[in-house]
Write a structure and sequence with these properties.
753 residues, alpha+beta, 6-stranded antiparallel sheet, 18 helices, 24 strands, 51% helix
Length: 753
């Protein structure tokens, strides 16, 4: 059975439940937030209190050391020691100290309420005199502090457990003032650890308790203290020895808690309206000898939290009642009538008629509906106007879709956006095309320069920078050649636009200066916004500061061959840097070839044997190809354009074929088509073993090496116009970033030449 409800009821009932739920959730979240805030504040107080404890511990240690140092310099102290060492009478000599310190100790106890405990020791480590008791002459070497000052003769302070329990102690050495700096003994000032706890307590809600590790007090008289002090209760390996007041709840503490504090360094928990935190106590050697426990009574905080929660609950109930009554009023008197008006208007609009705009200002969802209807009317008008303007070719007219689902409006906007983007992209493409064309022309230009000047290394070097500077619109350049020696170095082979070339540093060792660093790291160095006077460029108007400096390594076969250094008055752009890095590989290869050709010519001049010359040329040609391909391999992975550059550069002198990773032919140089007398279009997507003579075993062997990223070569013969031509082919794999085979290049050359 379906229950029929008016829209006012459908809105009111779920809304009341929703409002009730939201208010309750907000109240609970508020309560949790308050509780969390109180816990965080309480935890901070605990940490601060325990931090104050450590601060007071360090302060009292310094006070004890200060007092001991003062006592060590009193003249009658030295006199008493000298009297003992001369007479060997312990009581008569130590009584000098008792007599002279008697009034001092009385004054200290009167003014501070703390008994002044000063203990003088002999150089042998035995007790000289304790000013608060008659005992003297006993052996003290069971104590670590006594051992240390006896051996090191240097002051020391900190906490230590002794026969009288745990004290903050300051020990200062006593030396003879006669000039020989003879060690006479030491003086110790003892301050009770309980004073640290008392100074850390501020109000009656706070209490401290002190626990010592039983293992640390086995050799002391703490066993004797147990019979005298009712507070000394054992808990496993710990003994409870002190508290700040009777309000301290020792029953909340057990050995498990103390062990956690010793292990974790800080342990906090809550129990029966008390927040409790514990940290370990460390002696002067940073050994953990006990635990100090801080207790904070948070009963009032918990009661305040309960009271606040009850108040919030009452407010929640009242809020729900008021909100429900107000909602019923709003639904009955502010929703039903305007909703009926909107409904009638929408029926008219559904007939595709344009009506006057609605004027409903209820400032609620109904008002939003009327606004949406008005937007629909405006959209219909503006869409038709915008469509007419598009028809006239006006794309600058402002237009806004009614909503993201406005199919017509969004279609018109997308059309305008596409036209605008077409213009923008055309400019961007034009600029990118200009840069690509500039790069392509530059690569072709320098490829030609490199091909034409391979016999003279110095001439080739000068031709490179002479043409490169105007092309980059740069002003100065140096080209360095790597020289192998016992200590390798870089030497300038040629310079451009340096008027004071004689003042240039002609040589840099690897790692020296930016040039040497570039050679060591094998990475491009680019500096822009150079400091003033860093590098000056001469012109007709005088010397001006260079704006940018580019240093590019010339690498071939993964080895440094030289450095190209360029300075410019303008900032060198990224595409120019990429261009220089691209041709740097070709420059390095060509310079390498030029150097090898120079050596080759020298050998030819000496040997003058044609047969040896052919062998050297064949070897040099093969090595040159492999060097060029190897030095370009990384950039080939980065850019498909570079693959095309390699193809264009090599096909004039070699036979080049491009295959995909499945060894299917994709492209072939015209020289190879002409040699084989075939049409490459007829061999598209044909396996390389089908293009030239190949047996299946050799094809499989070559493909295995290609997939492994290794270079392979082979010799084969072909006939052209009845002449047998010997061709040497080099199979070169191109790998992607994941080192997976991407393409295969076969580069061949005529070894009959």
């Amino acid at each position: 059975m379906k229950i029929k409800l008016k829209i006012s009821s459908k809105i009111t009932i779920p809304t009341i439940f929703m409002v009730t739920f939201i208010i309750i959730v907000l109240s609970i979240l508020g309560q949790k937030h308050i509780k969390k805030t109180l816990e965080e504040q309480t935890t901070k107080i605990m940490r601060d209190k325990l931090s104050d404890f450590n601060t007071n511990l360090e302060r009292l240690s310094n006070q004890a050391l200060y007092s001991a140092s003062f006592c060590a310099e009193i003249p009658f102290v030295e006199y008493a020691y000298n009297r003992f060492y001369s007479s060997k009478n312990l009581y008569s000599s130590s009584s000098i100290l008792e007599k002279n310190f008697k009034n001092i100790t009385k004054s200290i106890k009167k003014n501070t309420g703390i008994e002044a405990k000063m203990h003088f020791h002999l150089a042998s480590g035995r007790s000289f005199v304790r000013l608060w008791r008659k005992k003297r002459g006993d052996d003290l070497l069971f104590r670590s502090m006594i051992k240390r000052i006896k051996n090191n003769h240097s002051a020391i302070s900190g906490a230590e457990i002794g026969n009288d329990g745990i004290y903050i102690r300051g020990l200062a050495p006593i030396f003879s003032s006669t000039g020989n700096e003879k060690y006479l003994g030491s003086v110790e000032v003892l301050l009770p650890l309980i004073e640290v706890i008392k100074t850390s307590k501020l109000n009656e809600k706070e209490d401290f308790g002190l626990y010592l590790n039983k293992e640390k007090i086995k050799k002391t008289s703490m066993v004797r203290l147990k019979s005298k002090n009712k507070l000394l209760n054992k808990m496993g390996n710990f003994s409870f020895i002190a508290r700040t007041s009777k309000n301290y709840k020792s029953q909340f503490i057990d050995s498990t808690i103390l062990k956690k504090a010793m292990k974790e360094g800080f342990y906090i928990f809550e129990k029966n309206n008390f927040k409790i935190a514990a940290i370990p106590i460390k002696d002067f050697e940073k050994n953990e000898i006990g635990v100090v426990v801080f207790q904070l009574n948070i009963k009032e905080n918990n009661e305040s939290l309960k009271k606040l929660f009850n108040e919030q609950l009452q407010i929640t109930i009242y809020s729900v009642i008021i909100a429900s009554l107000l909602l019923i009023f709003l639904v009955r008197f502010l929703i039903k009538r305007p909703l009926s008006i909107v409904n009638e208007k929408i029926k008219i609009i559904s007939q595709r008629k344009i009506i006057d705009k609605l004027e409903i200002k209820t400032y609620d969802e109904i008002s939003e509906i009327s606004i949406s209807v008005n937007k629909l009317i405006d959209g219909m008008i503006s869409s038709s106007k915008f469509a007419n303007e598009i028809e006239k070719g006006n794309f600058e007219l402002k237009f806004k879709a009614i909503s993201k689902d406005d199919v017509l409006g969004n279609a018109l906007i997308n059309m305008r956006k596409s036209l605008h983007n077409a213009k923008t992209n055309e400019k961007k493409r034009q600029k990118e095309d200009e840069q690509r064309n500039w790069t392509s022309v530059g690569i072709a230009k320098f490829s030609e320069i490199l091909r034409e000047n391979t016999d003279d290394l110095k001439k080739l070097s000068y031709e490179i920078i002479k043409n490169l500077m105007p092309y980059l619109d740069a002003q100065m350049s140096n080209l360095y050649i790597y020289k192998k020696a016992e200590k390798p170095y870089l030497e300038i082979i040629t310079s451009y636009a340096y008027e004071k070339e004689k003042d240039l540093n002609k040589k840099y060792f690897i790692g020296e200066n930016l040039v040497g660093i570039c050679a060591k790291e094998k990475k491009t160095i680019f500096l822009k916004k150079l400091p003033e006077n860093y590098l000056k460029i001469s012109s007709g108007m005088g010397d001006v500061n260079a704006s940018s400096l580019l240093i590019v390594p010339l690498i071939t076969n993964e080895e440094i061959f030289g450095i190209l250094e360029i300075a410019s008055l303008k900032e060198i752009k990224n595409y120019q840097i990429n261009f220089v890095e691209t041709i740097a590989e070709s420059i390095a290869s060509t310079l390498s070839i030029s150097e090898m050709n120079t050596n080759k010519n020298t050998m030819l001049e000496t040997l003058k044997k044609q047969t040896e010359q052919m062998k050297i040329q064949e070897k040099m040609m093969e090595e040159s190809i492999e060097d060029i391909l190897i030095t370009r391999q990384e950039n080939i992975k980065k850019s498909e354009n570079d693959l095309l550059n390699v193809l264009e550069e090599l096909e004039n002198d070699f036979f080049v074929t491009e295959f995909n990773k499945y060894a299917m032919m994709e492209n072939m140089s015209k020289s190879y088509e002409k040699l084989l007398n075939i049409d490459k279009m007829n061999f598209k997507n044909i396996h390389f073993s089908k293009i030239t003579e190949f047996d299946s075993e050799s094809a499989i062997k070559i493909m295995d090496k290609m997939e492994a990223g290794k270079i392979e070569s082979r010799l084969f013969k072909t006939k052209k116009q009845g002449e047998i031509i010997n061709i040497k082919e080099i199979f070169f794999p191109i790998m992607d970033k994941e080192n997976v085979l991407k393409k295969i290049f076969i580069i061949g050359f005529n070894i009959n030449i």
